[in-house]
Amino acid sequence: MDEQTRSLLDALAANARESAADLARQTDLDEAEVEARLDELEAAGVLRGYAALIDWDRTDQQRVAAIVEVNVQLDRETDYDDVARRIAESGYVDSLRLMSGDYDFAVHVSADSMGEVSRFVSEEVAPLPAVTKTVTHYVMETYKERGVPFTDGGDDDRLSVTP
Length: 163
Known about the structure:
The chain has helices spanning 3-14, 20-27, 31-43, 80-88, 114-125; strands at residues 64-72, 93-98, 105-111, 131-138, 144-145, 148-149. By secondary structure, the protein is α+β, with helices and mostly antiparallel strands. Helix 1 crosses helix 2 (20-27) and helix 2 (20-27) packs across helix 3.
C-alpha cells in the first residue's frame, strides 16, 4: 500500500463523510484518483462500509451495549470460523473478534434492553455445541469510541485535594 492510499484510509477513518474534494486535498491526489482508489478499496474488501458513530445516551432511545466473552471447545468438525459465522448471523452483534488470552471470542452486542441481550446470549450463543462458557459485561458508560471522545471535556467538578 502506498503512502497516498494509507493517507486516504486514515482520512476516512477520522471522518468518513469527507467529500472526494476534501480527501483529494488531504492526500495530494486529484478528485478522480480519490474516487478510483475508493472504488478499488471497496472492490478489494478493504473498505467494508461507512458508519455513523452515534452517542445513544444523547437520544431519547434506550440502547444497551454489552461485551460477551465466549469460550469454546472445538472438535474435528468445528473450527473458530464455524462458530464465528453462527454468532455473527445475529442482528444484535456489532462486532465479533477472536481473542488471545482467557476467552476465545469478544462479542460486542447492542439491543433495546438488557433482557434482549440476555435472551441473545441464552438462546443464540450458549446453546451452540462448541460454546462452553459465556460472561456478559454490560457497558455502563462510553468515554471514547473508535478514537472519538464521547465526553464534552467540560469543567472538572472534582474537589482539589492538597497536602
